[in-house]
Design brief:
Largest sheet: 6 strands, mixed
Helix content: 40-55%
Oligomer: single chain
Strand content: 5-15%
Radius of gyration: 28 Å
Shape: elongated
Low-confidence stretches: none
Number of helices: 10
Mean pLDDT: 87
Order of helices and strands: HEEEHEHEHHEEHEHHEEEEEHH
Structural class: alpha/beta
Distance between the termini: 50 Å
Length: 396
């Protein structure tokens, strides 16, 4: 009878050890998922701060505190479609962007978010149903409170390059995203350009795009001449007297990324590659037109997936915003801007590196393997192994 009780007790002990092992494994897996899929975004983005303006704002002769607009700029999200999008790739990279965006909204509290094109990866050829599915996923991933405005410009993957672009694709895009080209808030003018249409070959879409820009240029010039009460400006509501911020997908013309620096610039071996006009960057002619017509104080663009700061001949700074997706780079980021009608300050906010997450998962997997091997006696406990080494050392 005593033997039976002893055997039953041992069986319960082994059962308890296995249950305890299972609980430890579940706890470790849960902790890794919680850290890698949620907490890491808060830990990384929490380190980002809105840049401070260097100089005070003046109104005439007296100093005034003008309201500062907090704006986020991101680019090239490339939501995968039904043709090239593997389900696992979609799940991993889109979850990363959703968590990063939602965490940034919660921690940083921007007032407006601009996405500088290539929202989708297959908008240039997707069917009506595939487009509707992609839009639904985008609206879920980039959901935002009503007090935060989300503004989007078109990229070549959204409506196609010039030779693929059509009125149908442009209208489909503008039906989802407000087609306004000129947006003013807190005295700051933003001009959002369909840079794909700036081919300069006189096509109907290109001509319409240029006519829109000339009209915007006229309005901006009128805002600068308000004190002269020009009769040519009409009786409409004048724009704020502020040089605009130019937002577009294609960068303005530059020969290459040879002068670009920083950890999120293009790889060194690619920086010297010459850019192709109307494909990698806007043509020299289109770039000169934009700078002449709009006279912006700042230009922000995407498309290259890498960061670059360029000073154009007229003293205008352009920032190329890196891709927001792990699919395009290991270290995605976005730009944070503090802006007034006369000043601006920009800073960069990095997202978690993809290899950091992968290394963490690999380390956790290795620890789980060691834990299982120790439990089943295939490997000595690291604690016992350390004690044995200490004893040997003391003996010696």
């Amino acid at each position: 009878m005593a033997t039976m009780k002893l055997g039953f007790g041992r069986q319960n002990f082994y059962l308890f050890k296995r249950s305890f092992l299972l609980l430890k494994l579940i706890a470790i897996v849960f902790a890794m998922l919680l850290f890698c899929e949620f907490l890491i975004y808060y830990l990384v983005i929490f380190q980002c701060n809105w840049p401070e303006l260097k100089t005070p704002a003046y109104d005439g002769e007296r100093e005034t505190l003008k309201p500062v607009l907090k704006a986020m700029f991101l680019a090239d999200t490339h939501l995968l479609g039904e043709v090239r999008g593997h389900w696992l790739d979609k799940l991993r990279r889109e979850w990363q962007m959703e968590r990063a965006f939602q965490t940034a909204l919660w921690l940083l509290q921007p007032e407006v978010v601009f996405i500088l094109g290539d929202i989708f990866d297959e908008g240039k050829w997707s069917s009506s149903q595939a487009w509707a599915d992609d839009v639904e996923r985008f609206q879920r991933m980039f959901r935002h409170p009503h007090h935060v405005q989300l503004k989007v410009v078109a990229g070549n993957h959204d409506i196609g390059f010039h030779y693929q672009m059509s009125s149908y694709r442009i209208k489909r895009f503008e039906k989802v995203f407000n087609p306004e080209r000129l947006f003013s808030w807190k005295g700051i003018n933003f001009v959002m350009v369909n840079s794909v249409a700036l081919e300069g070959d006189g096509c109907n879409i290109c001509s319409e795009a240029e006519a829109e820009l000339i009209e915007i240029s006229h309005k901006l010039n009128c805002s600068r001449e308000q004190e002269h009460h020009s009769n040519q400006c009409g009786d409409g509501q004048p724009l704020p007297r502020s040089a605009p911020v130019l937002l577009q997908h294609f960068p303005l013309y530059r020969r290459s990324d040879a002068n670009c620096t920083g950890e999120d610039a293009a790889p060194p071996e690619e920086r010297g590659t010459l850019f192709k006009e109307r494909y990698d960057v806007l043509s020299r002619e289109a770039s000169q037109k934009l700078l002449w017509w709009l006279q912006p104080r700042l230009v922000l663009s995407g498309h290259t997936h890498s960061a670059c700061e360029v000073l154009h001949g007229t003293g205008i700074t352009e920032f190329s915003v890196p891709s927001f997706s792990w699919r395009n780079r290991n270290n995605p980021s976005f730009i944070m801007g503090s802006m007034t009608p006369t000043e601006y300050a920009l800073s960069k906010c990095y997202l978690p590196f993809e290899n950091t997450v992968l290394i963490t998962y690999c380390g956790a997997a290795g620890f789980l393997v060691v834990l299982i091997l120790v439990h089943f006696g295939f490997l000595d406990s690291p604690f016992l192994f350390g004690c044995q080494l200490l004893r040997k050392f003391k003996t010696v």
